[in-house]
Amino acid sequence: MPKVIVVDANFIVAYCSSTTPPDDRARINYFIERAEKAKSKVVFPMVCIAEFLVGAELAGIEFLKTLEKKACIVMADFNMAAAYELAQIDRAAIGAGDKKDESEENWQKIKTDRQLVATGKSLGAKLIISNDRGVRNNALRIGMEAMRIQELELSENDRQMHLVEPIKTLPNGKPVPLKVVRLGSRPAPKV
Predict the structure, then answer these.
(1) pLDDT tens, residue by residue, 1-33
(2) Who is most buried in 54, 62, 130, 161, counting CB within 10 A?
């Protein structure tokens, strides 16, 4: 696990949301657990926090205050070092003859994506976690690794298959045979 990892707004939303699919939730929780144990820093750039807060109520701000207390999470401002890194990214694209660097996205989105990558780079991030292709492409162009949430590792327990009790009975009154399911893919029946 790298010592510094940067995440984007879709990671923050997935981390904070109660509607995140169970497998994604398990991957994110295990990732944060591993980051804490490795004493790694997970960077939440302010540009991503702002994007998260657009859709969040006051509970979103309270949740961020709780996250801020975690030793592995760093709320990162866009500062002078990040501005320098952003200028390098923009300068390289302009020098190659295409300020959009072959992206089809609108210019504002390109600038925002680059700003979050530059924030991570200024703090020494070697990995970015984002489901956004534009963000991942910008990271890859400057030598940073990029992953989607779905590519994060599951814990050993979450990879195991578990037997669950039958929920229904057959018309003849016999129980439906046990099925093997992955933990988190289906709620456990109430007993």
Answers:
(1) 999 999 999 999 999 888 999 999 999 999 999
(2) 130
Which of 166, 123, 92, 94 has the alpha carbon at shortest distance from 3?
A: 123
| pLDDT tens column, 116-139 | 999 999 999 999 999 999 999 999
Q: What is the pLDDT of residue 93?
A: 92
- Give the number of other CB atoms < 10 A from CB of residue 136: 21
In sequence order, which residues have a C-beta less than 8 Å from that of residue 126 and are 6 or more positions away?
Answer: 2, 3, 4, 5, 144, 145
C-beta neighbour count of 133 within 10 angstroms: 13
